[in-house]
Amino acid sequence: MTPGPWPEVTATGVVMKMKFVGLAAVAFSALFLANSAEAQCRDGKNRRIKVINDTTFSMREIYGSNVGADTWQEDVLGNKVLGPGQTVTVNFDDGTCYCTFDLKVVFSDDTKTIRHSFNVCTETSWRIHE
Questions:
Q1: What percent of the chain has pLDDT over 70?
Q2: What tens digit of pLDDT does each residue of 18-67 get?
Q3: How far apart are CA 127 and CA 47, in angstroms?
Q4: Structural domain boundaries of the chain?
Q5: What is the predicted pLDDT for the residue at 28?
Q6: What kind of fold does domain 48-129 have according to CATH?
Q7: Which residues touch 13 (CB under 8 Å, ≥6 apart)?
Q8: Number of Cβ within a 10 Å radius of residue 123
Q9: What torsion, rounded to 10 degrees, do the Cα atoms 95, 96, 101, 107 define?
Q10: Residues contacting residue 94 through CB under 8 Å, at least 6 positions apart
Q11: What angle (nearest 5°) sits at the alpha carbon of residue 49, between those of residues 46 and 50?
């Protein structure tokens, strides 16, 4: 998990600097942030898909955002790349229980491919080809 913009809070520092109400608010916020970072939908549906790079270019970025989101979520590749002929399995379970996602790939030559309304609950793979 990448640290967020909020400072890390230790229990002893909080007790010394805040009243009980403040401590409860901080504890609730920390619990909410921890759960949202690892959120999972509990409907039993598998939201993992295999992304297959069937092109001659490396994939530099892969994004998936549920259709209810207004922006692209984080790049699931991070600092890695997916070379030609390689595959990666991505879990698109973001805790919202959406099955329909918009997917985007950015290639090493800065071209993009976008797939709208991809059902990650019924499909098992997304093959990108030239």
A1: 71
A2: 344 444 444 444 444 444 445 789 999 999 999 999 999 999 999 999 99
A3: 16
A4: 1-38, 48-129
A5: 42
A6: Immunoglobulin-like (2.60.40)
A7: none
A8: 12
A9: -40
A10: 39, 66, 73
A11: 145
Q: pTM above 0.90?
A: no
Query: Which amino acid, residue 17?
Result: K
- Please answer whether residues 47 and 125 qualify as being in contact, where contact means their C-beta atoms are separated by less than 8 angstroms: no
Measured from the Cβ of residue 10, the count of other Cβ atoms closer than 10 Å reads: 9
Asked if pLDDT for residue 99 goes beyond 70, the answer is yes
Mean of all residue pLDDT scores within the chain: 79
Helix and strand numbers, DSSP H then E, in the chain: 2, 6
Tracing tokens 């950015």 back to the chain, one arrives at 106
* Total number of residues shown for the chain: 130
∠ CA 98-101-105, rounded to 5°: 150
Question: What is the chain's Cα-based Rg?
Answer: 19
Residue 7 corresponds to which amino acid?
P
